[in-house]
Fold each of these.
Amino acid sequence: MKRFSQLLSVATATTVAALFATSASAQLNNPFLWELSKGGKTMYLFGSLHIGKPDFYPVPPAIRLRFDEADILAVEADVTEPATRNACQRLAVTEEKIEKLLSADELLELTRYLQAAKVNPKAVEGKKLWMVNLLLTVIELQQLGVDFEDGPDVVVARQARELKKRIVEIEGPKQCAALAGADQAESLAGLNRFLTSVRENKMERRIDLMLDAYRAGDGNAIHKVSTEEYGDTPMGKKSKARVFDDRHPIMAETIDGYFAKKESHFVVISAGRMFGDNNLAQALEKRGVKLKRVQ
């Protein structure tokens, strides 16, 4: 079997050689890796991001080793799987006209953003507001030089597929369902938060803080950056709970179930989920799972 030392020597089909050949040395000084144990069995959980940079790779040997030893890779949602992507796209389809959902000022600001980003307005047509928000976030990240395709979760899934490892989804299309669960008012509030963040040049600062925190292994900082945009309003708290807190008990139940399987699992979860209030680590502990961070 190919060694996991090859992992992250490729990231996407189009950036195979360039992405990691240009990285002099990896900078993950304190990687997010936990040993999970229950009933005499052990598995490992790797804390990831949905975005990445070349200096994240290659990952530390401790992570490579645990991946090699596992039979199955478990991810939140395998976005390299067409069925998962298609399911998300189906949830986003709407016949509502976006101009009917926004005020004149909101529509003007959105139009100005699309023009500045050189995005055809047709890109947001026929999509529900939650998907428009996600699409705009992806566009802005690309403008800032980061990409979901370079995130450790996506890269690990691509490598697992190349190595013929079986991949299972902790949430799969349910992850999109969680995003799609936002009502119109909540989605509109999210769009306004995004446009305000871009207008006030906060997005780039947040991304830089998140990337630096990931390099340093500072999970509390990642959680803070990930959640602070929701604010303290009732609507913001509702969104945060739906996107983060409410999902953790169900995710913990699925991960806990892997201990009953014959095959060994290597779990990849967004690192920020393991920190803050009502986090995934706490949800796992409530199910009798012991966690130890591997240094």
Amino acid sequence: MRRERILVWETFDVNDPLTQAAGDLYEKTLAPEERIPWIWIEKAVEGRRRRKRHFHNEWTKHLLLAALESELEYQPRLAGYAYGAYLPGFGGYLCYLGVADWARRLGVGTRLMEQFIRQMAVDAGELGEPLPFVLWESRRPELADPEPAWQLWTARMRLFHRVGGWWIEGVNLLTPNFAADDEGEEDADPVPLQVFLRPVDEPATAFDSERLRQIVARLQQTVYRRGPGDELFDQTLPPGCQPRLRPALNAIPARAVMVTQ
């Protein structure tokens, strides 16, 4: 059976029904504490429409949409989206990825991630820079969480493995609680995330423990505006932290393997 062809493109129109569908999917699939306001992403789309040139001191943000080719001539449904940015002098950063329930297991997530990585290479090339890696994060369920949560995590790790992603073992990235920010709760629990890295212009062997510490520190400083002395930064990279690259599938605990068999 031939797999349905999936088309991926960048949107520059916040009023496009598929762009609006991406906003709905974004809010449906991400917990409030993990997501920035959708209006920020819409503003990034509008900014790309007005100015498509790349600048060394600015992030280059992209919202990619996916749909089945067979539906584009009629009334297409959004199959999925990916949103992220090229960070000059650092690398690619995939912020959010979502796939519609009906489009799961069709290869949509793989197609979106591969296209995003290619876009990051284009952005780096336009600035005359190498692209050492593309980074992204994902929130792992708690061990006591129900089986569906672990099934989803396992599927996600298999996706990351397919696109060449590696897990940065030994780092629990603590990030601000965006839902708490909206409600003005300063003492809300931070959101713990696992970090993944896809080597591009450098081999996986180039990312030793010290290099990974530097990358995670730069991620905290550049994306979350947290530096040494900040509680979230210091707890993410405590003394003695020795991160290392491991295959993405190693991020599936034995408990998850049992419930998904």
